[in-house]
Automatic annotation (TrEMBL):
Catalytic activity: ATP + protein L-histidine = ADP + protein N-phospho-L-histidine
Database matches in PANTHER family: SENSOR HISTIDINE KINASE YPDA, SIGNAL TRANSDUCTION HISTIDINE KINASE INTERNAL REGION DOMAIN-CONTAINING PROTEIN
Name of the featured protein: histidine kinase
Enzyme Commission no: 2.7.13.3
Taxonomic source organism: Hydrogenophaga pseudoflava
Transmembrane segments: 21-42, 54-78, 90-111, 131-149
SMART domains in the record: HATPase_c (SM00387)
Signal peptide segment: none
GO terms for MF: phosphorelay sensor kinase activity
Gene that produces this protein: yehU
Lineage: Bacteria, Pseudomonadati, Pseudomonadota, Betaproteobacteria, Burkholderiales
Domain Histidine kinase: 262-358
Record keywords, A-Z: Kinase, Membrane, Transferase, Transmembrane, Transmembrane helix
Amino acid sequence: MNSAVAHRLFGWLPADARERALRRLLVIWCFAFAIGLILWGIGARSHPLDISLVYSYAISTSIWFFSDPLRIALHGWLRTPPPHYWASNLRVFAYMLVAATLGYTLGTAIGDAYAGRSTWEMVSQSPKRLFGIWFSGMVISGFFVLGFYQRAKAEDLRRQATEARLKLLETQLEPHMLFNTLANLRVLIQTDPPRAVQMLDRLNDYLRATLRGSRADAHTLADECARLGDYLELMAVRMGPRLVFGFDLPAELQAHPVPPLLLQPLVENAIRHGLEPRVEGGRIDVVARREGQTLRIDITDTGVGMAPDTQRTDTDGGFGLAQVRERMASLPGGAGSVQVSSQPGQGTTVRLTLPLQITP
C-alpha cells in the first residue's frame, strides 16, 4: 500500500527514495498536529483551533517539501549520493537554510490566506515577536533535519554491517560447493575419465561466471539463475539423465535484485539429500512469481523428501538451509522468509519470500 502511494506522489523522485520520503512526511504530520494544539493552547485560545492547525500543517509541510523531496531531486547539484541523499557539506547546509526559510514563508502565506489576515503586519507592529516565531520555526525544522540525518547515518551503518555479513556468508558458501565438486571430480577421474574432463570444463565455466558476477555492481535474479544453471549443468555431468531441471522466470522479474548465491545452497541440498538417494534421480524446478508486493521463489524437487522434524531444525538440510535462513534474515528489516514443505517420498519445496523491488 505504502509503495503504491509513494509511487503516485513521488514518481518524479528516484525509486529508492520514494517510500522514505512518504514515511518522513507522515512523521512530520503527526508532530504538526501536536504543535498546532500547543500553539493554540499557548495563545490562550485567542483564535479557532482550525487556524492553528492550518498554520502548523502548512508551514511544516512546506518546509518538508523544500528540505526533503526537493533536496533529493537536486541530489546531483547538492552532491548527495544515494541511498539516503544526505551529505555534510557547506552546499547542503546553505540549501537547508534557504529551504527552511522558503518553506516557512510559503506555509505562512497559506495560513494567512486561510485565516484572512497577514502575519507580515508584525514587521511594523512587533518585529521581535515575528523574529521569535521565525527563529522557533527554524529550530524545530533543524531538530527534524538533524533527526532524519542521524537516522540515515544509522541506516548506512546497518547496511554496511549487513553487506559485510553477506560477504562472510559468501566466503563460506563458495568453498563448500567447490569442495563437494572436487570430491566428485576425484571419483570420476578414477571411474570415468571422459566425464571427468567434461565436468572439469563445466567447473571452469562456472568459476568464470562466478568471478565475473563478483565484480558486478548489482546482482539480479536473472544473474542468480544463470549461475545456478551453470551449477546444474555441472551436476548433470556427474548424474547424467538422473538429473533434470528447469527454470520459470517471468521477464518482469529478471532484473529484480537478490543476494548472490541465495538459491544455490538450496539446489545443492535438493540434489544431495533429495535426488541422489533416489535410484532414478528426479527433477528440480526453480519458479519465480510476483504476489502483491512480494517476490516468491520456489525450489521444488521430486526427491525422497524430508521428515517434519528435519524441516524445523535443519539437521538434515544442514549447511545450505541454515545459511539461506541467515541470509534472508539479513535483508533490510529482516523482511525475508523461508518456508519448507515436504513429504517423505514425495519431494520437497522451499519457498523464499522477499520484498518486491521493481523499478517502474
